[in-house]
Structure formats: C-alpha cells, structure tokens
Write a structure and sequence with these properties.
The structure is a homohexamer of 134-residue chains. Chain A is mainly alpha-helical and 134 residues long. Chain A has six helices and no strands. In chain A, α2 packs antiparallel against α6. The first copy, chain A, is elongated. Chains in contact: A-B, A-C, A-D, A-F, B-C, B-D, B-E, C-E, C-F, D-E, D-F, E-F.
C-alpha cells in the first residue's frame, strides 16, 4: 500500500481505540494531592518566609497536576455508560477539580482542605476500580 | 500586622474569589479548535510527508490546548447554580473534550470532525455568555 | 511513490505555506493581558499574603503568555510587506512585549501598567485586522 | 519580626527538610512506563499511519515523563547513605533512564524493550520501599 | 516596615533592573540551532521511518527553543539605544525567528537551511557581544 | 520498500545513534546556574517584597532548568566507558543536581550556594570536554 494512500485523510474517528487509553490510574492524582497536603503541613511547621513562598509556588504546581490528572480521567477514561451507571460522577469530578483549584488546594494552606481533596479522589478511585473490574 | 501572623495557615478557603476568576473567554478554546480544523484542511491539500508529520504534531498540541481551555471553563468558571440551570452542561463539556481528544480532533484529520468540535464549543459559548449576562 | 522517496530531505523551505499559519488572533494576547490587569486589581483589594503570593505567581505566568502570543504574531503572522507598510510595527511589538515583561505586567502590580499593555495590544490588533482585510 | 529581617538571605541550606520531600512514589514512573509499553503494543496492532505517528508522538512524551520521574527520585529522594547501602543504585538509575530514552522506550516500538524498562523500575521500586521501611 | 505596606501595589515599574536581566547568552539559541542542524543531518543518513518521525518531533521542539531564546534576547536584553545603534536589529531578529520557524528549521530537514539559521544567530551574537563590551 | 514494512516494529534499539546525541554542551546548565546566582545577588540588594517574590519564582524555574540540563548530560551523553574512566561521575552529578535543588539553589538565596553549584558544573564540564577530545 502506498504512502499517498496511507496518509490520506480519514473521515471516521477511531471508534475502537483511544490512544493511549489502556493505562489510567487514579494514583497519579492521589500522589499529587498527598504532595499538596504534605506541603501544607510543612508550611505550617516552618515560618521561614523563603520556605513559605517556595511552598506556595510548588503547591500551586502540584494542585494543577491534580486537576490535570482528574480531567484526563473524566474525559479520556470514563465513557457514557459509566456516567449512566454513576450519575454522581460528573458532579464528583467537578467538585474534586474545584477542590484542587482556587477554592481548595491552591487557595488554602490548610492540610484539612487537602485531606478533603484526597477523600474526593478516593471516591473517584473507588468507582474507577469498580468499572475496571466490570 | 506581622508577617508571622500574616503567613499563618488559613483554615477557610477563599469563598468569595477564585483567583484568577474574572477573565474567562470561550474564544480561547475556539481559536485553537479553528487551528485544528485549518491544520486538517492543509493536511488534506499537501501530500508532502514531512509537512503531514509536522501537521499531526502541531494538531496534537492544538487539540490538547482545546481540551485544557474547556476543562478550565468547566472547573473554574461554571458554578453549581449554572449546572442546575443547564443540566446538559456536564455532558456537553464531556462530549466537547472527548471530541477534542483521541475520538475527535486528535485522532482524525478530517476537517468535518474538527467542525463538530467547533460547534460544540459554540454551544458552550452560548451558555457561557447567557450566564455572564445573568 | 515510495516512502524512501517521500521521506528524503527537501532542500527548499515551504514558501507557500507556514503551517499553521491560517489561524491567528490578537485576542489570545488580549485575554491574557486582561487577566494580568484583573489579577493586579484583586491584589490591591486583598491584603491576605497567601492570596498575594498566589496572585504574583499567576500574574507571572499570564504575563509570560502575553509575551508568547505577541512573539508568535510578530514572527509567524507578520511578513516583510507588513513591516514595510507599518514601519512602527517592530518597535510596537518590542514595546508591547517589554510592557508584558519585567518593566511592566510582570514587575508591577499596578492595574494602570496592565492597562497600558492592553492599549499596546489594541494598537497591534488594529494593524492586524487591517492586514487581514487587505 | 520584620519582613526586612524575614526576607534576608539565608546562608545555610535547609538541611532538615527538602521541600517537597515527603511524597515520592516509583508508581509515577511505572505508570508512564506501562503507558509506553501499551502504546508500543497498539502500534504493532494498527497499521494506520496517522495512528502510528500519533503513537510515536505520545510515546515520546510518556518516555520523557518516565525519565523525569526517575531523575527526581535519584536526585531528590535518595541520599548519600542510600547510595552507600546500595552501591548499584547510581548505575541502576542511569541504565533505567537510558532505557527510557533513545536507546529504549523512545527509540523503539518494541513492547519487549518497554518491558525491560518496567523491570528496571521494579528493581528501583524494591530498593525504594526497603529504604522507606528502614 | 510592615508587610501591609511592603505588599501594597507599586505604581512605578522597576526602571533600574529587569529581573533576571544579568545573564543572557546567545549560546542558548545557537546550541539549539546546532541541534536542529545535527538532527537534519541524521535524518538524511537514516531511512528508518520511526527514526525519521522521532527526528521531526524533536527538531520541532528544538527549533521552538531557538525561537524562544531569540525572542527573549530581543525583548528582554536589547534596549532602545541598541535598536538605534543597530537599525538592522529588528529585521535581523525577525528573519532569524522566521528561519527557526516554519519557513526554516521547522519546515525543512535540509542541513543547509539550519546552517543559515546558525549564521543569523552568529550575526546577532556579534552585535550582542559588542553591546556587552560597550 | 513499503510503508507496511517500514513502519513495522523494530526489535532492536538503535545502538549506533541516540537521537539527538550530537549536540551537548554543559554551557546550558552553567548559564542557568549563573542566572540563579545573579537572582540571589539581586534579591539581596532589593528589599521590595514584590521583587523578592518574583525573584524566588524565577529562581525556582532557573534552578529546575539546571537540574534538567545536568540530568540530560548524565543520562544521554555519558556512556558506561565514561563512568568507568571517571568513577566519581555518578556522585558528582548527584551532588550537582542536589545542589541545584532544595538543598542548594532552590532552597537558598545565598549567592555563595549558587557559586558552589557553578563550581560543580565546572567540574562536570572539565570531564565533559576531556571525553569530547578523547
């Protein structure tokens, strides 16, 4: 088969395979959320202002990664049948990403707020692993 | 007020203000989606394999930006009352980001698939501007 | 045609088409500049040091995006005939990107400085749309 | 205490705490390495050239993330006493990151090469968890 | 001095110092441009399509870095007196960044095109070092 | 040769060539380390808190780039025979990247700490150039 044919435009999206769909793991979001919590704890225990400013810079990045990993799960892993079976899933992801953002892990340096984020991710992970076993 | 006090941990998230909440515009997602469509069109018109590989590389990046801008709107701009008033909003964003991803703008080089993405963004934009006027 | 031939090096640059040239919009720079201004305003209205440090982190990123979007327009969109017709264009872009950088939107948290940045982008946008209509 | 004093330069590095040291997990590198392997497998099963080019683009990014996560463990988590106790550790990390790079996961689309990368990460993870329990 | 005063908005941009102005070096752009040239040479010598696609992906990234390093010099290092003394400087930078972009290093895999990019950077570097000695 | 054959998986990694191996230069790490030092010096000379927070944000980024450039040299440039000939090389890189990280350039705003980082990079550069001449 020739390249000119091989490279011609395809009119149908790949329905059978979402590269790279095979490997998803809520652990990615959770590790970053645990980092957000650990940073908040260290921030509380250290009054050095240079340390605290660095903590806020790094926490901002880690919380953004939490959001990103959750968004990827929501868009790339979960499919319409999942949202039908778990009608709370949209809202759960929206609350979790908000919790990782300015309303939560980014805007606050309270470990309890980061803990709530971890618990929301745990709820998502529970559903995730149920769908993997199904 | 002293720095030691100013820098002490806050237990309440900022409820009144999501920095940087004030400036959102669905145009960001739409410009990138139009870029995805334009790349698909140029790809179809140019059989040079180096050009086509570059087109796929750049389209991958642009489609990722579409997803990112949409995710930001969904998490950072839209609030629970919006989701109550527009019950289709979660699904609309999920379909739009899927359309920007492997099932759509990323996995396909068909301008018609990119056009469907633009139309989903237009639907979101319509709701966005209604909520801004409310 | 065979891949070995299709993939062989090209000695001529693509003169007719700068992928992805078709889609440019000064709105990208302006939205980020408006974000820089909004952040400066919120910074002024909120003395919480955690909020202020976050504001400075995010403003730094947004101002960098302003620079990037302007640089792309200057290098990728505008061509020699444009620079001949608008001899002030080089200087205008240089001042605008400087205004987005340390001398302006990055180094200052004064909304008036961000407003000057927006006005420089508006000047560029005016020329941009004139060249699109030409 | 005044800000002028709080913000004055520190001459001693923080010896007791490497922000953000608390949260490391070799799972981050392994998830990306599994993604590299899954992409190589899908590549083998799908001759569509657009799919294959996308697979190579994404594999390049995932393999880069493997390298990054491993580098972070090597520099930020492991300390001189670890390197004394595990004299093979430097070489193990160097081989693993090379395996993730051009010599391995990046340069090859053979799932067996990605599998070797996963096994090297497993060796690192084994040592990592031993040091955590110590 | 109190934090409330220290953190209040400044109305004047820092005129005396553009953080981080002190360290610029055209070598950054040149190293990446040499990488673009080396990639083009290797591409010519290796017909393996996986190698070639990887070469195009990496060349795209390296050429983007050339553009970025040049833009930074143009906006952050060079000041109005430099542009007065070297009236060709705006055009030289514009041509060099175009040469790094789709019209040159990105769109072509011809080492000669990358060589022209290196020569443009050498011209910029010559002026740069003259201004440093002034 | 056909694309179906050209694109089939390769079982052997490219032993002769690590794209993009040809162009490495310790100057990349050193320029960023000099930037870290210059930022620390300016920080000391300027008590403006906005300036200082920006300095810490930018220093964090520059120090991260030092780490990245050093990691690339360690993994991509240096080969087993180099590590045999220079048995101190693993430890030297590990100390240098730690010095660029939280224990050094990131965690400290002392120019002397950044100077130590520069000296470690100089040691690496000396070995690098010896291996290039060999």
């Amino acid at each position: 088969m020739r390249l000119t044919r091989l490279l011609k435009p395809r009119t149908a999206a790949h329905a059978h395979c979402d590269l790279p769909c095979g490997v998803y793991d809520p652990a990615q979001a959770k590790i970053e959320a645990e980092s957000v919590k650990a940073i908040a704890e260290k921030y509380q225990q250290n009054e050095d202002p240079v340390f605290r400013i660095r903590a806020l810079i790094i926490k901002e990045q880690r919380a953004e990664l939490v959001k990103h990993h959750l968004w990827v799960l929501w868009t790339d892993y979960f499919k319409p049948p999942h949202f039908q079976k778990y009608p709370q899933l949209h809202d759960l992801f929206n609350r979790a990403t908000k919790q990782a953002g300015a309303a939560g892990g980014k805007g606050s340096v309270d470990p309890a707020v980061a803990q709530q984020l971890i618990e929301l991710i745990d709820e998502i992970a529970k559903i995730f692993w149920e769908t993997k076993q199904a």
